[in-house]
Write a structure and sequence with these properties.
The protein is an alpha+beta fold. It contains four helices and five strands, in the order βααβββαβα. The protein is 32% helix and 28% strand. Strands 1-2-3-4-5 form a five-stranded mixed β-sheet. This is GNAT family N-acetyltransferase.
């Protein structure tokens, strides 16, 4: 069965149920209409990229990224905003494939660094180990505040 990575295309919205599963497993449960509209907006934004990992004809992973500019120096970087492999396919190397392809896309787009934040919760320990084993360093703490 073939494995491919490619950028999200509008017709991938026809596989919204596969994407809903990934969002649920990522910890972002949502409803069909909301995800459909969100992905359409992301697809139409020039600085956002959604890389899909497809096995056969099933979407088994996604990497959502945004190309950003540095404030502190010249150049651009890629921020990894969402990254998930379907739980039925984990521990088989698919995450590494998707992460490497995400890095290649960032390089092709002229980015000098790829960054991400990951929650400081026990259930994220495996994800943290995965990122560290793929060359990421824990260099900062993230903060957030709701404005609603």
């Amino acid at each position: 069965m073939t494995i491919e990575t490619r950028l999200f295309e509008e017709q991938d919205l026809n596989k919204i149920n596969e994407l809903l599963v990934l969002y649920e497993q990522l910890g972002y449960p949502t409803i069909t209409e909301d995800l459909f509209n969100r992905l359409k907006r992301i697809y139409n934004h020039e600085d956002y990229y959604l890389l899909l990992l497809i096995k056969g004809d099933v979407i088994i992973g996604l990497s959502g990224m945004c190309k950003m500019m540095f404030y502190e120096k010249n150049g651009e970087y890629m921020r990894l905003l969402a990254f998930v492999i379907n739980s039925n396919y984990r521990e088989k190397g698919y995450g590494t494939i998707l992460l490497k392809e995400s890095e290649m896309l960032a390089i092709q787009l002229g980015c000098k660094i790829i960054t991400l934040n990951s929650g400081k919760r026990e259930e994220r320990d495996n994800a943290h180990s995965f990122y560290k084993s793929n060359g990421f360093e824990n260099k900062s703490s993230g903060f957030s505040k709701s404005l609603e």
